[in-house]
Write the structure tokens for this entry.
Amino acid sequence: MAGANSELPDWECWALLGSLPVGRIVIVDHEHPIAIPLNFRVIESEARRQIVVRTAATTVVGRYEGLASFEVDHIDATSRQAWSVLVRGRLRCLTDHTGLPDPDPWFIEHRGHWMALDATSVSGRRFTGRTSDDGYSVEWEIAPG
């Protein structure tokens, strides 16, 4: 079987993002990138698209504002198929979350601090693995964004 990958259109990236409840936010902490899993919700309007999370104000994410990215992946090892979506933007604190859907964090104690990643770009890829001498591999590259 030959491996394959394909770039996803924006609309499919957003649809896939909305299909899973957990992703990873990537921020910079002490001059190093760190990826933290979080429950999230996608908010779409004509004006903008956002990733909304609820955390504690004292967490590393809760204290952060600035450039960030958010990644969601789905990997089916049995069928050797996967997809990955990456959103880039700016993370900021929300002062008003009225009317927004609850991200429903798994840990709820002190998770009243709402934050939004205002998306500036989205990219995604779909992958199909191929057999190799030592198992299987997936070939992919990040699309410019």
Summary: The beta strands are 4-7, 22-29, 32-39, 41-44, 49-55, 66-76, 81-93, 113-128, 130-132, 135-137. The CA atoms of residues 87 and 98 lie 24 Å apart. The domain at 4-137 is CATH 2.30.110.10 (Pnp Oxidase; Chain A). The chain has one domain: 4-137.
